[in-house]
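Encode chain A's predicted structure.
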Amino acid sequence: MQKYKKEFDYSYALGTELTLELLLSHPKDTIGVYVHSKQKDNEIYQRIMALCQKNRIEVIRSDKAFNIVNAKENCYIMGVFRKFTNDIDFSRNHVVLVNPGNMGNAGTILRTCVGFGINDIAIISPRIDIYDPKTVRASMRAFFTVRFSYFSSFDEYLKKAVNRDIFCFMLDGKVNLQDVSISDRNYSLVFGNEATGLPAEYHEYGTSVFIEQLNTVDSLNLDNAVSIAVYQFVNMKPNRSRS
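Encoded structure for chain A:
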């Protein structure tokens, strides 16, 4: 057991709910489950133990392991899993994160997207490590159901994500989110880094969109902006004239 590092081929699911979802979704990728002495013998614990037994997954009882990985005080179960691939589906709508830098925000964004029915996330390098336990935990189980792929550049992504509408969210976007319409084609919602947003050249990639707000704040937090945009788009009806 070691503190997580990006170069590892495995990661940690910290907490009972995450570990349960790991065992339900990726039992073959689960290496083992660690249990702290403070863990109560409750229903979710019994479910986890039953799944471990069913899938012949080792259960290790060790308080020290939780200190090594810097688990939060209320974390008494954690799953160790191999990093798996679950590539995006190019026949679906996407959220594209360009150079995301905050692991907690990334996890929250995964949770939001899955909650509203967008299960495919494209991540443009340089970027965060999506397998970091902070991202996994912030996703609140969505990590194990979302599909995600890395791309070295946005142009590389576009070579594969063809025949779709591109909407780039920018502070100086040309179209108010409230005035956007969609066609029958799939779409990609593109967001920039938390600190810098999208570079000016993203105006040329598709429709640049802004989220109208009061001037009492500089900008919305990235995960808030994604939440607003995704909610708006999934509730839009296609405008056939744009097809």
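The mean pLDDT is 92.
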